[in-house]
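Supplementary Methods, section 5.1.

A reviewer requested that the exact input to the structure prediction be made available. We therefore reproduce it here, unchanged from the version used in the analyses.
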Amino acid sequence: MSQTRGRYDFCIGLVLAMSSSIFIGGSFILKKKGLLRLARKGSMRAGQGGHAYLKEWLWWAGLLSMGAGEVANFAAYAFAPATLVTPLGALSVLVSAILSSFFLNEKLNLHGKIGCLLSILGSTVMVIHAPQEEEVETLNEMSHKLGDPGFVVFATLVVIVSLILIFVVGPRHGQTNILVYITICSVIGALSVSCVKGLGIAIKEFFAGKPVLKHPLSWILVPSLVVCVSTQINYLNRALDIFNTSIVTPIYYVIFTTSVLTCSAILFKEWQHMAADDIIGTFSGFLTIIVGIFLLHAFKDVNFTLANLPLSLRKDDRAANGTLLSMHDCLNHDEESSACLGEMQSTETPAARRNGSLSAF
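The structure derived from this sequence is encoded token-by-token as follows.
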């Protein structure tokens, strides 16, 4: 019975995680559209510390969409392990990329389509190999986990690094280095996931009739979650305002997911209950998603489609045939062959010599 219940919870968490990605992926587009409208009006931009976006309805629509996604994500953590829920955030990257091509005039080329396919395949592999059950079921167990020395050290380092980035590095390099604001969002996000997981357990216990409101951990997790989420929203807005959405989204996903997986390994120790092939499968799926996201955005400005592929091959063939024909003409004229070969060798670049160009013959 418990195994059947665990499978049922796993499926619920999976559906909630996928719906969360759809809402969050759409929220990036709505918020970016709102920020672009403000920039055209000449308002102080969020990247410069302005808060004019609070008067823009598109930004609020994006915030509501993200809120719906976060609620679904919140509920997903109550039913499924963080090792499964967090990496499925890659689907929000796909939604964001597809919607960007329609509403932000960002093209999705062949590399992007292959990247989408790889991300979907990687997500599928992670779903297959993810742990099927969660070990932490009560707030008392969660309190014991949060008091573990390993997690205390991890949380302390996260807070110290975040404060250094916010007050020292951010004012100097935040406008030019994309990693500054995104790193703040990502590492703080690891702590917010822990808070969400704890509150999810509290909600399940509340509906089971247990006195969770009397447990001090419930009142610690709520303000901690508010602080973490507020910080994430603030610095994610700054990153979106300054840099391209198609760059911010994948980098944020990779750093955020890595931070959460690290936090999950330290806090919940889910990896200790997984077989070796499941661990390998989970990491392989995650790396496949990263490769897919890289292809999706690294070559987004390259105009390359399936229709261009035969044309590119024909150009390469013509270039090779042209070189061979010029050599043949030179060799057919005995009196001019020495001069012709000398000219070909003189125009040969050092790189061509190293690569073994045909003219060397």
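Confidence is low (pLDDT under 50) at residues 343-361. These observations are discussed further in the main text.
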